[in-house]
Every structure is written in C-alpha cells, then in structure tokens.
Amino acid sequence: MGFKMGIVGLPNVGKSTLFNALTKTAAAQAANFPFCTIEPNVGDVAVPDDRLERLAAIAGSKQIIPTRMTFVDIAGLVRGASRGEGLGNQFLANIRECDAIAHVLRCFEDDDITHVEGKIDPVADAETIETELMLADLESVERRRANLVRKLKGNDKDAADQDRLLAIAQAALEDGKPARTVAVAAEDMRNWRLLQLLTAKPVLYVCNVEESAAGSGNSQSARVAEMAARQGAGVVVISARIEEEISQLDAEEAAMFLDEMGLQEPGLDRLIRAGYELLGLQTYFTVGPKEARAWTITRGTLAPGAAGVIHGDFEKGFIRAETIAYADYIAGNGEAGAKDAGKFRVEGKTYEVKDGDVLHFLFNA
C-alpha cells in the first residue's frame, strides 16, 4: 500500500519543478506560463528508508525493494476553477482521485517569474485554492442531494444515510469550512470517504522558498506555518530549485551538496515523512536472502491486514506472524541473534503491527 498525493497550487509556484525533482524526470514541462501542465503527470518514487538497507546488509539480501508512493502533478488552479475557469473541471477531477493534497505555495521573490495574482502572498494563495475546492464540493453536494429526493420519498435507507452525511457536509461548506473539519462518527467513516469530497482530503502545505531559506524558512513560510497550525494541517519547507539540482547528482555528490547548503537531508525525505504522518502510515519489513522489502500500512493495522498487503490469500488464511522489532533485529545482528536474546515473538490475529516490525507470515493456502 502506498498513497497518491496530488501536487496543486496556482500557476508558477514551482509545482512542476518540484515534481521533476521528486521523480528525477523531466516528464512535467516546467515553464513560466500558466497551464504548461495540461495532463496530470504521475510519478512513482521509492520511499527512502535507511532501515531497509541495514536489514538487507545483515540478511545478505540479493535485492532491496522499497515501498513506493505516487505524486500527481496537477495543472495550476486559478480563481474560478470551480466554475470551469482555466482548465478547472479537469483539474478538480484529477484531485478527486488522490488520497491527499500537497498545496505548493510560492514563498520566494523573483521578478523573472510572474505570479498569476500579481503579488507574493502564500496565505492568500492557499485561501484561493481552498475556496475553489469548497465551491466545487458545495456544488457537488447540492446536486447529489437533489438527485436523492425520489429515493428519499420511497424511504430508501441507504439514500437517507447518504443524504444525512451530505447535509452535514453542506452545513460545514456553507459556513466556510472545509469538509475535513467535520467530526465524523467511526461507523459513518466508510460512507463519508465514499462521498469523495475534495475538501475532506488531508492537506500538506509545501512552502517553496529561495535556496538560502531552505533550512530555516523565511517570513512567508512562517506565515504559512501559523495558518497550518490553526488548521491542524502539515507543513514542509522546500526549495524546489535545490531539489532539482540534487536530483541530477549521484549519492556522493548529493551528500556533499547538501552539506554545503547546511541541510541534513533532501526535501523529498521530509515531504514523504510529512505525508506519512498526514495519512497515518507506517512501514513494516520482510527480510530474507532473496530480498529485503518494505511495505506500507496504516497505523493500527492488525497482523492479518498487514499480511493482506502482500497478498489477499495471506490475509484469508492467516495463522500467525513471526515478529521481531527493528531495533531487536539490528541488535541481534539478524533473526538468530534476536531469537537468542528472546526478542523473537509469535503474534496472532489481534496483534497491532508496529512501525519497523520485521515480519514473517504463516498462512493456510
């Protein structure tokens, strides 16, 4: 299980430059004019995790297979997108297919790069995008409620449940609040997700700053951080230009470049961690002489569900999970050492998998 994050923002904020850097491709044409991205570009990238390489080294694994995540570079939204301005309808449909939204906000000054609104104000930019998404959601909710009228008259229970949730969403949207601010009961969560509301998706603000501010941010990114804190949203500071340069270097050169810039790691690493936190994701590992592999699951996943990420038959026929915590595997220099130290455990169907667990599943075919 990975996840799909849509990269959105106004034109010329650095979306495509960031996408190119993240995917180490030039698939998205980065140009200084609106709508240079006509079709959504999709990039599937490996999730960097030093733990996987350490596990592989100990086990002598011939192959290392990281878990992956998908970025979708969605063309720039503009004011009026909810009414079809620019290429709004198409872009909104692309966003609907994503699990989370990364709002790229321009937090740098550059007279050579135009801004569609004529000024640098990342908070106002974020509000513009949020407003368009809320307007699109409101239109969708009103239309869907109107289509349910006949079924409601026939006392259709499913229609009544759907209308109840749509009414809750409509009330929030009409109050100027995105759907993600609604407190949804656990028993309603599945049907709530099926509504596919744009503003119900988790949001991560990506502050694109000048190179000199990549480490600590600047006054504009500080304003975004304050806004994100009020909303309970995530925020990451990145210089798309630095990421673009790093993407062209080999590992040794990239490390030297980062050191010269006073940075500990690439922005990609921080962006992925923030995305994982946003969606409540974590990683477990399977390790052997053939391969060391990382798998992504949501926090709270039980052992059978984690097994099902590998193959549905593993979940259906689940018997038990042989489990070693990552730290114990490293400390024992492998499975044998962990067993000798009493750190090897056998867990059943109710075991909640922890981040970094090294697992081996037994199941009935």
Structure description:
It is a single chain. The protein is α/β, with parallel strands linked by helices and 365 residues long. The protein has helices at 15-23, 50-59, 88-96, 122-147, 149-153, 157-174, 189-194, 219-231, 240-246, 251-261, 267-279, 303-310, 312-316, 326-331, 335-340, and strands at residues 4-8, 41-46, 63-65, 68-73, 100-106, 203-208, 234-238, 281-287, 291-298, 318-324, 345-347, 358-363. The protein contains 15 helices and twelve strands. The radius of gyration is 23 Å and the shape is flat.
Describe the secondary-structure layout.
Blueprint: E1 4-8, H1 15-23, E2 41-46, H2 50-59, E3 63-65, E4 68-73, H3 88-96, E5 100-106, H4 122-147, H5 149-153, H6 157-174, H7 189-194, E6 203-208, H8 219-231, E7 234-238, H9 240-246, H10 251-261, H11 267-279, E8 281-287, E9 291-298, H12 303-310, H13 312-316, E10 318-324, H14 326-331, H15 335-340, E11 345-347, E12 358-363
Parallel strand pairs: 1-4, 1-5, 3-9, 5-6, 6-7
Antiparallel strand pairs: 2-4, 8-9, 10-11, 10-12
- Label the overall shape: flat
End-to-end distance: 22 Å
Q: Which structural class matches the secondary elements?
A: alpha/beta
Mean pLDDT: 86
Query: Which value, in Å, is the CA radius of gyration?
Result: 23 Å
Helix content: 40-55%
Question: Which sheet architecture does the biggest sheet show?
Answer: 6 strands, mixed
Report the count of strand segments: 12
Number of alpha- plus pi-helical segments: 15
SSE ordering: EHEHEEHEHHHHEHEHHHEEHHEHHEE
Strand content: 15-25%
Order of adjacent strands in the largest pleated sheet: 2-4-1-5-6-7
Unreliable spans are 25-38
